[in-house]
Design brief:
- With 231 residues, this protein is mainly beta.
- It is built from 1 helix and 15 strands; from the N terminus they run H-E-E-E-E-E-E-E-E-E-E-E-E-E-E-E.
- The strands form 4 sheets. Strands 10, 11, 13, 14 and 15 form a 5-stranded antiparallel beta sheet that branches. A 4-stranded antiparallel beta sheet has the order 3-2-5-6, with no helix packed on it. Strands 4-1-7 form a 3-stranded mixed beta sheet, with no helix packed on it.
- The longest helix has 20 residues.
- The N terminus is likely disordered.
Length: 231
């Protein structure tokens, strides 16, 4: 084969491949929505790096279709703008809420919006986070939704609003390993002077309460993050 023929065949192959690639269907649907507390109607805050995920399986791909997933954002919302319309099985079973049964769902071309109502393992009630007398103090109540004991409670600190169990520069964690009483009050505190090299005076930091239930798949439940000035 001459060099000219080789070059010509290479160009034709590239053109044919491009045409074939261009003929593939592109994702034509958006799957977005919210994860809300079934009792209060509030969004359920998450951990971005290792929080709750939605798993979904597109039907019509044989006996072993791939399992896809997407992260639920810190505020409890989710968005996937690159998905195909069609029939899916949606699984919500590995998060900071009581797992749901598998849901059959059809996604239409265009935008599909869905609100999933779940029961969080724990509800953090009446959270207060403030700085007083050189200490960061968190006061709150817990509601235990399931029979699972409360494993731990925490106060997390980080310069970014996504502060959490996986993203913190300072934390105060207390192991409970027990059930709690209705309306039981809790308090956590961090002596800021103990972390003066990490928490710089005159800078803002985000503080967030977390509580984790016992259970194989249970993840932290969170309050909203609060920005405070360290003085």
């Amino acid at each position: 084969m001459t060099m000219k023929k080789y070059i010509l065949l290479t160009i034709l192959s590239c053109l044919l491949f491009s045409c074939e690639k261009d003929n593939l269907d592109a994702p034509d649907a958006v799957f977005a929505g919210e994860l809300r507390d079934k009792k209060t109607g509030e969004l359920i805050p998450q951990e971005v790096s290792d929080g709750s995920r939605i798993y979904f399986i597109e039907q019509g791909w044989g006996d072993n279709p791939p399992v896809q997933n997407m992260i639920i954002k810190r505020d409890g919302t989710f968005y996937n703008g690159l998905i195909f319309s069609g029939d899916y099985k949606v699984i919500l079973n590995r998060g900071n809420y009581v797992p749901l049964d598998t849901i059959d769902m059809h996604l239409n071309p265009g935008k599909n919006y869905r609100v999933f109502e779940v029961n969080p393992y724990l509800r953090i009630l009446e959270p207060q986070i403030f700085i007083k007398d050189g200490k960061a103090i968190a006061k709150f109540k817990l509601e235990q939704v399931t029979a699972n004991k409360v494993d731990r409670i925490s106060l997390f600190v980080h310069p970014h609003i996504d502060v959490s169990n996986k993203l913190n520069v300072v934390n105060q964690t207390v192991m409970l390993d027990r059930s709690i009483e209705d309306g039981e009050k809790f308090e956590l505190s961090i002596n800021l002077s103990d972390y003066s090299s990490t928490l710089k005076k005159g800078q803002n930091y985000y503080f967030r309460i977390g509580a984790q239930s016992q259970g194989n798949e249970a993840k932290y439940n969170y309050s909203e993050a609060v920005k405070l000035l360290v003085e």
